[in-house]
Amino acid sequence: TKAHRGLLGEKDRLEPEKIKRYSEDMARGDKFPMPVLDYAGKTQEGAHRAAAAREFGLDKIPVMIVEKASQ
User: What pLDDT sits at residue 10?
Assistant: First the structure.
């Protein structure tokens, strides 16, 4: 969604070479850690893996979503 894409900052541009490599690794059966959207910390991790999964043909992938910081 747009809200998710909004977490990507200007410095976090996706690298096509990395996406291609990850997609090829997925085709070989390699496993990857789950991407994380951290709304509390306003960060995300795993955008290249998510893009590679989309390129690989997956419509959905599991993503950990953090909405509030724990105390």
Answer: 42
pLDDT for 31-43, tens place per residue? 999 999 999 888 8
Nearest CA to 62 out of 23, 39, 21, 31 is that of 31
Q: Looking at this protein, which amino acid is placed at residue 1? A: T
| Predicted model pTM | 0.73
Q: CA 52 to CA 25: how far, in whole Å?
A: 9
Q: At what angle do helices 16-27 and 47-56 cross, to 10 degrees?
A: 60
On whether the CB atoms of residues 34 and 64 are closer than 8 A, the answer is: yes
Q: HEC states along the chain?
A: CHHHHCCCCHHHCCCHHHHHHHHHHHHCCCCCCCCEEECCCCEEECHHHHHHHHHHCCCCCCCEEECCCCC
